[in-house]
Write a structure and sequence with these properties.
Blueprint lengths: L1 H4 L4 E3 L5 E3 L9 E2 H10 L6 E5 H21 L9 E3 L6 H10 L6 E4 L2 H10 L6 E4 L5 H12 L3 E6 L2 H14 L4 E5 L24 H13 L6 E5 L9 H20 L6 E3 L23 H19 L5 E3 L4 H4 L3 E11 L14 H12 L5 H20 L5 H23 L8 H4 L1 H4 L2 E5 L3 H4 L1 H6 L5 E3 L9 E6 L8 E2 L12 E3 L8 E5 L6 H4 L10 E7 L7 E7 L4 H7 L4 H17 L5 H15 L27
Length: 640
């Protein structure tokens, strides 16, 4: 499966380690497990986010080269000027890396809010590339965009409603600058999958045909007809079917062509986002996949726009796309440690209670179990377990008997499943086919779904998950992944599969002497920035990796960004560390006065508290307890 969703970047080597080739065949492969060890040598614990910055560069080049090749193939008479929508990952180190990678292609940025506008203007330095401004806008947002125009930048304000067109014209006159205006068309065509509702006639954004004509009149009345530079549309994120994209492109190209024939000086056609990622490797129209390549995407856009424009006899527009997920998803991998498991079929030994009738009935089921009576045995076992529960609820069953019945029930279920694995699937009843799910273990992992996989929790999005080592060993159990939060929703409940969605994931038994690491892949889009601090579990440790042929291992860690300490997330929620230390000291002083604590012990406890505030928010595993942590002297001195 890895070679299907890995996109040419991820694979498994002969040691059973997951590797990454950020430049595909043009560069070296790096074992992710080795990067984890290198980060640990620098004092970083898991969960650990690893960014392969060369992979960002490769994705930017892949997209731009695909459009350049399509333009040459179809003799297209316009340019490609892509933009990265920074809402997909606003982190400074990501955005600046993308802009650096895209400089030779004049690859720009898209901003969708006032804060993004204020971040985008300073980091954007190539005045040949675009800044596309989406989202609802107030005067401050528009003014900052017009400041960019005064600086010679190609800033295009996309009007989401008619009042914004009037506001742009008004403020441009006040600032004595020529605005560049784009109009978002509300297409009839819309996407598919989880984000289909963001397009179509009932979309949140976009102008109707009548409103577009009204907007051109507003610009004309303001003496700014020349400001109309771009036609824009967006049919949704993660569009899995290329046929949907083709239809939308042709519809939007027709709008562009008709507006050009009316005399409007439109130069750009922005096809928005939607370029998908094949999260499950099925190469299908399933919402977690895509049935096309980046190259096919570019060819279909270029060809269909050219075809419509040639038919209408209008100039080919410069093409803009706002691909975010396709640029950043692959570049980051979240590594988490599984430190414990919950197994239904493993139970401690206890004295037998063979004299109880339900225990005897289960012994009989176990002794007569065979491939000939699987379903009957399963039903008998369920009946005994349910009767035991009813007897317990009315006080007629002791705990030792209840414990033995439950243990025997799961032992019988496990034996039934093992026999079922040797039989043809068509011979198995549906109840028996459900057993693997009922018997699945749970691997407890040191991370937060709410912080690091918010799209899975909120939208059911799928991400590839696999051990990053021991892949030369056969997995021993079907399991699910649960996090360390106190919330029952803190788990990964669905997993990718080539043909369907899985309820469980094949995993290995945890060896207490050898840390077991899982990699969660394709998390670079949205997950980095959308997580919250549920349970006050903050940002994880992070390293940035670059390939380097001069290094013996083939790479180096260029930057380390430590995750949030406990004091950091407490300060975010208005618990000031100084105040907390002072309150703790006051309580310890009171305990000393009441002879509950000796002074020496009280001061040691206060130091432990101060030191603990500097600890990371995630659990400290036994094998990392000796990692050096900062001295508590960096905290403010205790008050009092």
């Amino acid at each position: 499966m890895i070679n299907r969703w890995g996109g040419g970047y991820f694979d498994v080597d002969e040691r059973g380690l997951v590797t990454v080739a950020p430049l595909q065949e043009r560069g070296k492969r790096v074992a992710i497990h080795d990067v984890v060890k290198a980060a640990q040598a620098e004092g970083l614990k898991t969960p650990l986010l690893i960014r392969f910055q060369d992979l960002l560069h490769h994705r930017v080049r892949t997209l731009n080269e695909a459009f350049l090749a399509a333009i040459n193939e179809f003799r297209y008479r316009g340019l490609y000027r892509g933009v990265f929508p920074i809402k997909v990952n606003q982190l400074h180190e990501v955005v600046t890396e993308i802009l650096d990678a895209g400089q030779r292609y004049h690859y720009g940025i898209e901003v969708g809010s006032k804060p993004e506008m204020f971040a985008g203007i300073p980091v954007h330095t190539d005045n040949e590339s675009l800044i596309v401004c989406n989202g609802y806008k107030d005067d401050a947002f528009i003014r900052m965009a017009l400041v960019g125009r005064k600086l010679g930048k190609k800033v295009i304000l996309i009007a989401e409603k008619l009042s914004e067109v009037a506001a742009i014209c008004r403020l441009a006159k006040e600032m004595n600058v020529e605005p560049w205006i784009g109009l978002r068309v509300r297409l009839v065509s819309k996407g598919a999958g989880r984000w289909a509702s963001s397009g179509g006639e009932h979309a949140k954004f976009g102008l109707t045909t009548a409103e577009i004509l009204a907007a051109t009149e507003i610009m004309k009345t303001a003496g700014m007809s020349q400001a109309f530079k771009l036609v824009h549309f967006h049919i949704g994120s993660q569009v899995p079917d290329i046929l949907i994209i083709k239809r939308a492109v042709r519809e939007a190209a027709r709008y562009y062509a008709k507006l050009r024939k009316m005399g409007h000086p439109v130069e750009y056609l922005d096809v928005g986002g939607g370029l998908a990622i094949d999260y499950d490797g099925s190469r299908s129209t399933f919402h977690a996949s895509m049935n096309y390549s980046v190259e096919e995407y570019a060819r279909d856009i270029v060809y269909n726009v050219a075809d419509v424009c040639d038919d209408e006899k209008v100039p080919h527009p410069n093409l803009v796309s706002e691909s975010g997920r396709a640029i950043v998803a692959h570049h980051s991998v979240l590594v988490v440690e599984a430190f414990g498991s919950i197994e239904k079929t493993v139970a401690p030994e206890f004295p037998s209670s063979d004299d109880h009738k339900l225990v005897r009935s289960l012994f009989e089921v176990e002794e007569t179990l065979s491939s000939q009576n699987l379903l009957e045995a399963w039903h008998d076992a369920i009946q005994a377990k349910e009767e035991a529960q009813k007897m317990f609820e009315v006080g007629l069953l002791n705990l030792d008997v209840k414990a033995q019945i439950e243990t025997m029930f799961w032992r019988i279920a496990d034996r039934i499943q093992k026999i079922a694995k040797t039989m043809p699937e068509e011979d198995l009843a549906d109840d028996i086919k459900e057993l693997p799910h009922q018997l699945s273990d749970q691997h407890i992992c040191n991370f937060s779904v709410f912080q690091s996989l918010v799209d899975h929790w909120a939208l059911g999005a799928l991400f590839p998950i696999t051990p990053i080592h021991r892949l030369d060993e056969k997995p021993t159990s079907e399991s699910t992944i649960v996090d360390i939060t106190c919330d029952s929703d803190g788990k990964v409940s669905k997993y990718i599969d080539r043909n369907d969605v899985r309820d469980t994931l094949p995993l290995h038994a945890i060896d207490p002497n050898d840390p077991y690491y899982l990699g969660i892949f394709l998390t670079g889009a949205y997950q980095d920035i959308m997580g919250d601090i549920h349970n006050l579990l903050g940002r994880v440790n992070e390293v940035h990796v670059f390939l380097d042929d001069d290094e013996e291992c083939g790479y180096y860690i260029e930057e380390i960004i430590e995750g949030n300490a406990i004091r950091d997330v407490l300060a975010m929620t208005q618990y000031e560390p100084k105040d907390l230390v002072a309150r703790m000291k006051a309580q310890i002083d009171a305990a000393i006065k009441q002879d509950k604590l000796k002074p020496t012990e009280g001061m040691r406890l206060l130091q432990d508290y101060e030191r603990g505030l500097l600890d990371h928010t995630y659990l400290t595993m036994p094998h990392t307890r000796n990692v050096v942590t900062p001295s508590p002297s960096v905290l403010p001195p205790p008050v009092g």
